[in-house]
Amino acid sequence: MPKNQLRPDGQPRDKAGASVVVWLLLGLVVLFGGLYVAAHYVAGDKVPRNTTVSGVRIGGHPQGEAAQRLQAGLADRVNRSIATTIDAQQVAIDPARAGLAVDYDASVAEAGGERSWDPVRLWNYFTGGDDFQAEVEVDETAYAAQLAELDEQHGAAPRDGAVAFDGADIRTTKARAGKALDPSDTLAALQDAYLADSPDVVALEMSRVTPDIDASDVQQALDGFASPAVAAPVTLGFEGSEVKVFPENYTAALSLVPTDGELVPTLDGAVLTEVVGSRVTSGAPVDASVALVNGRPQVVPAKPGVTFDPAELEAGFLDAVARPQGERRIDLTATVAKPDFTTKEARALKVREEVSSFTTYFPYAEYRNTNIGRAAEIVDGTLLEPGETFSMNDIVGERTEANGFTKGYIISDGILVQDLGGGVSQMATTLFNAMFFAGLEDVEHKPHSFYIDRYPVGREATVAWGAVDLRFRNDTPYGVLVDTAFTNSTPSSSGAVTVTMYSTKYWDVTTTTGERHNITKPRTRRIDDLTCHPNEGFGGFDIDVVRYFTPVNGNPETRDDEVFSTTYTPSDTVICTNPDAVDE
């Protein structure tokens, strides 16, 4: 190598030049890298310098500060009402109630307010900036509520056509179009006016809203179902017997329900089963009975029991009512059970007329109203067949709170004490006298231990559950219907209970009452119990009552006079010695 191509240090000159270039390039990289890093830190998360959002200058400021400047700059526009008209009527809409709001952070971020190493981002910060629109967010729930309120105030809800049944008649409702704001168009118009510098009045247009069920749907329902449904009865076949059900009854189970733009026939199976059950007895048969109708005894016919599958009835009924007359029939798989007591047997009892009636009265006491009224309610409607014995305890049952009774006064050991069912003996006495004058056989009765002056002397009875009963037998060839009537007592009026017996008169009964004899004097008893009830006593005596029988209506029997002898013990005078005794 020539000597002049060597550097003083002995290195070749071309190698030395290359090193210089490398060092120079490294210096430039370090220089520009430093400038780039400095530019990044200068730009930070600031918005490009010339940026505006909805006319508000926010350029050159960090993101948080830019968001605050944007919020301040838009405050007047955000808080003002949006002027609109709806059908030429001026309406001011609060944007907040309409669900409109500005997302300030998102608006700044969209305008470039974010930290980044992207050279384009850095270039835009120093040299760029543009005009942006603020990011508007919509609360869909609030907007829907505002739109519904506007529709309610300025619009009109559409009315569906309808078809309904009123017995055998058809009632129709005409369809009517409505009007409402279009949700999409209304929102777009409100958003455009929301942040505008000088917004025009927004004209919101109502759109026509068609009903789901229109006139053609109504006519189709009339022709296809409703009119045929009321044209004629439907015949139900129950294993050889037929029952007709009529439109005025079964249409209560029919309805036409709006479904997917049509009126669809719908059946209430429970109502239909009830309607059919009123024409037949579904399940167990019902015995014949005798009841008072308009004050006169009448036979209530028996009903055979028909067992059928309600699902089978429901499955074919909608189709049957839409068929032409003559084809409206459903044959059901059914079984028929006969009643134990037939209409013929009920009529044979010949319960035709009143044969006796007796009324007793009682002074005011709420326990009497409760207990006598409850006993009368239970006894009412009792039917005695020939040879059958009436038992008051069996029919009325135990006098408990669960059975509807309350505490009242009864006679025990010659004095008044409280117990459940007190007062029921008033009902026993009334029954006894009605039985007495109907000429029925006295099987068991027990007078009160001492005489109570509101009862007929020698013709009265008491009862006590499990110990004393009132029983009498229907020894006539006819049935006997027992009817009761009850009137509450009040503080200013007496109560009353009446027992009336209906049959065919078999005996004409009269009676005489003898003189009181064997008079006995009361004692005076001093009782220290807290529940002592004071009483002014009176004497006891014996009495004889005679019942006389005269046969009537072809009665071939004769009957001896019947003597009822009663001994009443004295009603003791009771003095309560305990100062804390409570006279309940």
Automatic annotation (TrEMBL):
Alphabetic keyword roster: Membrane, Transmembrane, Transmembrane helix
Residue span(s) of domain YoaR-like putative peptidoglycan binding: 94-200, 226-323
Superkingdom: Bacteria
Transmembrane segments: 20-43
PANTHER family registered for this protein in UniProt: EXPORTED PROTEIN (PTHR35788:SF1), EXPORTED PROTEIN-RELATED (PTHR35788)
Record's protein name: VanW family protein
Coiled-coil annotated residue ranges, if any: none
Pfam family, one: VanW
